[in-house]
Amino acid sequence: MSRPPELDLASVFSLLGTAVDDTVLQALAGTGLRRGHGYLVQRLLAGPATATEIAVELGVSQQAVSKALGELAALGYVGPAGDADDRRRRPVALTQAGRRVVRVARETRADVDARVRAAVGDERFEACRDVLLDALDVLGLGEQVRRRAVRPPDGALSG
């Protein structure tokens, strides 16, 4: 394989992230989902939550989260979860359709992993994965990833 000259690691991270996101979005074509929705879906994989709770956890405005959750609800990917202890609290959760698109996204990412693993071999693949996971911690994202509460880039939640 021919390698681009003088490409720093940070640029590689950025380019790879965009390429993987684009691959996943292509697999989800026709679903109405966009890149910013993924941050909310990831958070909801941890369990039901209100717009306010999600906004606090992700460090974004409640209005942006409410708007994006409204979009996801209109698409059928989230719905009311109910709270037996507090009827004023209105958490949402992924619906069956929401879990279905999560499966498609995971299968797509697993295919990317398999293609890279086939190209570089198991040992290099695992070593690279370890370095990238360490990089998440170095950049302060490791704990956010573990909590499924990665802050979206500015403007990612607005359509």
From TrEMBL:
SUPFAM superfamilies: Winged helix' DNA-binding domain. The keyword Cell cycle does not apply. It holds the Pfam family MarR_2. InterPro entries: ArsR-like_HTH (IPR011991), HTH_MarR-typ (IPR000835), Tscrpt_reg_MarR-type_CS (IPR023187), WH-like_DNA-bd_sf (IPR036388), WH_DNA-bd_sf (IPR036390). Keywords: DNA-binding, Transcription, Transcription regulation. It comes from the Bacteria. Residues 6-137 form the HTH marR-type domain. This is MarR family winged helix-turn-helix transcriptional regulator. Gene3D superfamilies: Winged helix-like DNA-binding domain superfamily/Winged helix DNA-binding domain.
